[in-house]
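User: Some background: our group keeps a shared notebook of sequences we're curious about, and every so often someone picks one and asks for a predicted structure to add to the entry. Today it's my turn. The entry only has the sequence so far, pasted here. Could you supply the structure so I can complete it?
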Amino acid sequence: MIHEAKGVSPLIEEKWESITDQFIKRVSANIEIVRELGLIRNENYHAEVIAGSLYYIEERYLWKIILDKTDIPIEEIARDMTTMYTFGLFK
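Assistant: Of course. Here's the predicted structure to add to the notebook entry:
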């Protein structure tokens, strides 16, 4: 319902944007904590850029899962998304 309403209702679109902004702020804060702990791969990362990139990539794919437009088992999706988020893609 939300997926369809986003494109039709300005109120839903605004609410979704607010949820998105809050999520990106929380992930940015987590990235800053990781930076303070010395666990970040690149000290020059801009936390909001990384948080927004992760969010928008995954948000798009999560709609595909919710709308049942993939045959990949949810356990495999969860494993791969978590691994990529935690360790990155490249060596």
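Suggested note for the entry: Residues 26 and 74 are 25 Å apart (CA to CA). The chain has four helices and no strands.
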